[in-house]
Design brief:
261 residues; alpha/beta; Purple Acid Phosphatase, chain A, domain 2; five-stranded mixed β-sheet; 13 strands; globular; binds manganese (II) ion
């Protein structure tokens, strides 16, 4: 486990490992995907203890903070993994790594209580520099999903960065959008202005144009996993605040294992 002050130090140092809005594509034998943890440090610790040693890569899909009382330590634990083993660790940004949510869902208060007034500023610096996406074994990995008007993955590389909220409409959608089988293209989402549902046709076209197998993402509360669009979009959720199970997806030489912890 990690203490609050240690978490702050680690986050400061790990910032140097955040390389831009889009990370270089990766091809690895055994990859672990972790969805929203939202302060579930017990889940994060279990995943690292049980699965990280024999993995080639671990991908955290965002939303580390803003629930419960251990968000800071959870964020620090993931950042310390990134710091210790940057080649084997990917830490993507979620919509909760942002001042758009932190004052309302608990993280700003938690940081102020544990580290003092003004310390939240350090976290803004870290969040705005986090990457949005990476392609791993021909799967697009990001927190929310594809964005309306975006045709190629490479467009993510030229998004404004750092971008605090983010304000860029495409970057915002990468973090906030959700897949829905029953629609074809893009429909405004109940999550609010600027967020969309992406449908079956939009997803199919995007995957074909980019020679991708699918999308691996988090962002929605599901009991471990959910598949949409015939398995083209896989949602992983790795917290337990909803009372369900925490899912961990493992991709091993093309074979998918769904584990709950
Ligand atoms: Mn989310």
């Amino acid at each position: 486990m990690i203490e609050a002050a240690e978490a702050l130090r680690v986050i400061g140092e790990a910032q140097a490992e955040l390389a831009g809005p889009l990370l270089n594509p990766r091809y690895e034998d055994r990859v672990i995907f972790v969805g929203d943890t939202h302060g579930a440090i017990d889940v994060t610790q279990t995943v690292i203890d049980k699965f990280f040693d024999d993995a080639d890569l671990i991908v955290f899909l965002g939303d580390y903070v803003d629930r419960g009382s251990k968000s800071l330590e959870n964020l620090g634990l993931i950042a310390s993994t990134l710091l210790e083993d940057p080649h084997r660790t990917i830490m993507l940004r979620g919509n909760h790594e942002s001042p758009l949510t932190n004052p309302y869902y608990g993280f700003t208060n938690e940081v102020t209580e544990k580290l003092g007034e003004g310390s939240y500023e350090k976290f803004k610096e870290f969040f705005q520099a986090m990457p949005y996406a990476v392609v791993v074994n021909d799967y697009l990995c990001l927190h929310g999903g594809i964005a309306k008007g975006m045709e190629h993955v490479s467009e993510i590389a030229s998004l404004p960065w750092p971008d605090l909220n983010p304000d860029d409409p495409t970057a915002f959608q990468l973090l906030w959008n959700d897949p829905r089988d029953v629609i074809d293209e893009f429909v405004p989402s109940v999550r609010g202005k600027g967020a969309y549902y992406y449908g079956t046709e939009a997803t199919k076209t995007f995957l074909e144009n980019n020679s991708l197998k699918g999308i691996i993402r988090g962002h929605e509360v599901v009991d471990g996993f959910r598949e949409d669009m015939g398995g083209r979009v896989i949602t992983v959720f790795s917290s337990r605040y909803h009372g369900g199970k925490a899912g961990v997806l493992i991709l091993d030489k093309g074979k998918m294992e769904r584990i709950t912890v």
